Structure formats: C-alpha cells, structure tokens
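Quick one:
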Amino acid sequence: MSYRRLMLAALAVPTFATPVTARAQQPAILDPRPAAPAPALTPAQIALVAKARALGATEVTTRPAPDGGITLDGKLEGDQFVVAFPEGWAGDALVYAHGYSTPGTPIAVSADPVGDKVGGGLIALAYKDGVAAGHSAYEKDGLGVETGTLNTKRLRDFLVKMGAHGVYAAGDSMGGGIVVTLLETYPGAFVGGLARCGVVDSWSTLLGQLYDMRAAYNYLTRNTPYAIPGNQDIRRSAISSVPPAGFDGDPKAYGWAQLTKVVTPILALYAAAEKDSRGKEARIVAQVAAIGGFEVDPGSLAFPLLTAALGADDMAATTGGQPYGNIGKVYASPTMTPAEAAALNKGIQRIAASPAALAYLTRWHEATGRITDPLVTMHNRIDSLVPYAQETALKETVAKAGHSANLAEYPVAPLRAPLPVGGAQAYTHCGFTPDQTKAAWEALRGWVATGKRPAADAVK
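Output:
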C-alpha cells in the first residue's frame, strides 16, 4: 500500500502530500539566453528507441538521464511506463511495483524515476549500478494487485525483448505483495525480488483487520464528535475521494479535502485520549487498536481507518463482492470489560462475505510459499498500516512449502515522523532509511550474483 505517499508524500499513494512551507515570493528573473538543447542521442540510444517502437510501444518520448543515460517513456497496450537506461546498459533490469493509491488518485508514472527517488531511491540505486530501472502505471487506482501484477509482468517482458537478460522485481506496501505474487505466479521470470513493508502473505487477513477496526470504531464513537462522517455502513465508503462528474478542479486537492474530513475526528479522538489516559477516549483508542491488531498510536489509528473508510466501494467493486464477513465472530480484548465486550458483540455491524470476493482475494493474493527465486523482504517491526505479522505469516507459509532457502527476511526498527495533518509524531508505513534501502538492494544483488543467501545481519 506504497501507502507511503499517503502520509509521507513518497512512493505509492499521492493522496496525502507533505505541506510545502510557505516562502516569500521572489520576483521572476528572466534569462534572455535560449535554453540549452538536449544532448543528442547516441547510436545505441537511437537503436533502443527504434526497438521500443518496433515492439509496440506507443507515444514514445525520451529525456536525458544522469551520466549520459536516457529515460524512455511511453505506453504499452495503452498503459504508461517509464524506464531509465544507463549509458552503456549491459542488460540487467529492475521493474518496480508501487503501492496502494486512494480511489481518485490520478493514474500516472513518475516523470523522472531516478531523480524523483521512486521507491525511496531504489530505482536511483539500481540505475547507479548500471541497471535499467522503471515502472508501469496500473489500469486502476485503489486495490490493484491484479493489474499491478499483470502490468509489471508486461513491462518485464518488454524489457527482455529490449535486451534485458536478468530482471529484478521490487515493490513497497501493496507493491511488496505484488512482488510475491509475481514470483509465485511466474517462477523463473525474475532473477530475484525485493518486497518491502508489503502485504506479503494475505490480503484477506489485512482487509479483515481494516474492516473490523472500522466497525468497532463506528460502534464505539457513535453519537460522539469523533464519529467518521458520512456513510456508517462498513460495506460502503464513508465518503468518496473520487471527484464527482463534471468536477473541473484539482483532483488531488479534492482527494486531500475528503481525506481531511475523515482523519480530523480520528486525530481529535487520539488527542483527547492523550490528555486523559484513563478517560473514555483513551479506552476507545485502546479498544479499536486492539481489535484491529495495531499499536496505540495516531498513525496506527488513522491509516487503517482511512483506508477502510475511503476504499470500501473500490474494494467491493474490484473483488466482485463483499471481501470480508464477521457473521458469528466473537470480539474480545483485554482492553475491554466483559460488559463492554458483550455490548460490542451485540451492537457491532455484522456483514456477510461474498464467496466470489474471497476467491478473488485468494488469487490476488494469498501466498502459497512456492517461491523458487531469491526473495528479500524488509519490514518495520511496527508499521502503521501493514503489520509485521504479514512477514511472520509469510515465513511460516514458505517453510510449509519447503522453500525457506529462497527467503531472506529483515525486520528493522520502527520509524516515527510527523503526520501531515495535525503534526503529531506517529509510526510510519514503509519507514526506511537510505542505508537500509541500499543494504536490502545490495543483499539481493549479491545473492543473485553469487548464489549465496545473504547474512542474517545484512540489513540493520
């Protein structure tokens, strides 16, 4: 759920953006000199462009990339892609899968995958190593494991036809789960994968946590100032982050405004809980977090509830039905008295899952553990949207399948940062340092090059 750009304005989810600090406006200085022409393409680069077009790429354009390279972007079967080819490219390639994007997010690729530090700088690292690196747009926003898998595989196949002899797969959040899906679905197509902070084991498990959390929050905050506005039926989105028909404004601004409407009462509840650790609000926060399986933290409260409140319509539409049910489920938690638990179980909304939706989530995707190519995973021990339990479950799944030798997992310390709304310090989603990103990439590269599984302390 590269949901990282959702709250950190990074890779996957451009719904949240980090506010820009206002600065005094300076008068424009006009340079009368004409802009320098772009460097002429080398014969090898001209041949790359011609080959891309011959292979069916349309709307192909190029821009200079660092150190004499070239960035090539265009469309494959109508979907955008972008790849940066280093000068003297020898054949290694990396395809990157981005994370979850809130419904209504514009579908596009990065204009500069190297300079924009896509994947927390992962594409830039690969490019510096002489690897052609890029990513594909998906066919839809929201829940996109299926389209992300198919479009990323299509870009991989295109690069192989362009001359790639070894292609890596990497991704964050939802994209991390896409990496596992790619390795399991297309064994041997990739030389290895790097999945960070991903839904690597089971989407059914994660969606269950999100739906449970929203249902509990709705029940515990009803008739209070902290209730999420809009539709209280957890089968539907609370409000829509998709601009209405005829909207002619900025879709990102619209999405941000809708998101703010949802997150404001949630963060107000947390702020009230902090003021009185024994008060009603503090009990609600503790109970909602426990039911969802998250930390008592403003980010760990806001991120899951936002995803469930803004994404329910898309989740149902994408999976072809209701992807979660709680009929007969008994909710219990040490944070509740027996009377509170009984009241919750009586009053919480009950919904039935659709067999078709559950089957869809099994296909896109619940891990089988049948991984035959090297896979490196990295995950914060505390993550505000995708719990570390996904990594624990994947390790068990891979072990049961007899493929533990192909998995190297790296838990790293949690990271805290200010929230874009309100500014409270909170646990991040996909909170990695540049050194950790580099170490994980080097661990995978070394594993592929030598055939030797990386050391247990390769990523710290």
